[in-house]
Amino acid sequence: MKRFVKEVIVLSLALLVLAESAVAQRRDTTTFKMEKWQTIPRYPAHYTFKKDFTWLGFPLIAAGFIVKGQKKDFRDIRNEMEPLYKNEVDNYTQFIPMAATWGMNVFGYKGRSKFGRMIVSQAISSGVMAGIVNAMKYSIKEMRPDGSTQNSFPSGHTATAFMAATFLHKEYGLTRSPWFSVAGYSLATTTGVMRVLNNRHWISDVLVGAGIGVLSADLGYAIGNWIYGDKGLYMGERADMKCDLIHNPSFLSVNMGVSATTSTSIDIPDAAAQFGEDLRMRFGTGTSLAVEGAYFFNSYIGVGGRLKVTTTPIRIYSAEWEYDEEGNLTGNVGQLIRTDYIQSNNVGVFSADLGLFLSYPFTRRFAVGYKLLAGNTFASNQDFDIVWEPDPADPDDPGECPFIHFESNGYFRFTSGLSLTYALSDNLAVRLYVDTERHNAKYDMQYLDFVETIVKNEAVWSEPQRVENKYWMFTAGMGLSLSF
Fold this sequence. Notes:
Layout (H helix, E strand, L loop, with lengths): L1 H28 L19 H4 L4 H10 L4 H11 L8 H4 L2 H11 L8 H26 L15 H18 L4 H20 L5 H26 L22 E11 L3 E3 L3 H5 L3 E5 L2 E11 L4 E23 L5 E10 L6 E17 L4 E14 L2 E6 L12 E10 L1 E15 L2 E20 L2 H7 L8 E19 L1
Antiparallel strand pairs: 1-4, 1-13, 2-3, 3-5, 4-5, 5-6, 5-7, 7-8, 8-11, 9-10, 10-12, 11-12, 12-13
């Protein structure tokens, strides 16, 4: 464990070194002299509320409340992929961006603020964050997913991590190099993901915590601006960090959308022989969350990747077959009737992709984009239960019993998508997108053999049967992007 923690800390420091290397590389490609920070074209050292407030916290908080109803579905994906995962490195990564701002400032690598002003702004931010987080934790009293304590919502670790990342963004990302912002928010995202993998938080806890962290940093620095005015500042923002999708097309984005599939239902094989009627699984509209980023070599061409999680409701329906005028089966399914004795469920899908990103900027603020990605997809396993009214006279009557089990198999698939990006302010852009994915989902399905289960007094399942479902998935949504 100690070795792993050391490796993460070394990696984090390497990210910060790379950030400064990126500044040096940029010096070689610009037409003006940039050997010293004083010669970099920049705005005057003056910060206003409108210019300094990122507004990123509000959509993150809204996203957390939106997915709160599907939090268990997202956890199912974690339980399928890494059910025994446990690591304490997130106890350290939450503080690395904040420690970096202190260290660079103390050792003379100047950023936005002098040390005294920076500490006051960050102390105010920390107080705001701690007050909001703890007030919510001990008033909402939500149980953690591991069942340990009732203070899950929101995530304090994630709030601290995103607050610290926003410190690094304001102090060095906007004044020195955007790679400091990328490094900070990447570490913060890693902290949030690990809180979910460690089974300490629901995904809604992490999203709301991230939003509170960013919002607290914004408020702390706004109060610091009010207290100090233009005193205690080293430098203003870089002039080349202005709203400019022509020269700054690279991005790191958090996306949220809704998903629908062309395959609205699939047959459950041998259902008639097992249960006396034909059954079908029907898919509803899903909720999608993604982290996406790309580095552009010029204004038009880049490479990048995406991590995406989608949860989709599944309902079981009984299929009524159509008959012709002579009473013969036509082979066509007529009406699908919702079964009231089978419990509904949700399927979680995780995908990781890499590929090509293209951008065409119409103006400095507007750009249209295209992506072509490929990667692997993993879906959570599914169990469907028969439910009934429990016998009040029988305390051992559970009222439900599993009868179908779907075991997921990973598969390869392609994604293409279109986007429209608008630069809201320096470094911050809003992105509207539509993605199309080709899926070839594969499941191994088993039935519960009721007769053998009763005879042997233990669950007896049938031999697995392969079920394949080829379909297109369309996702439309919006994202907030950090441009650089």
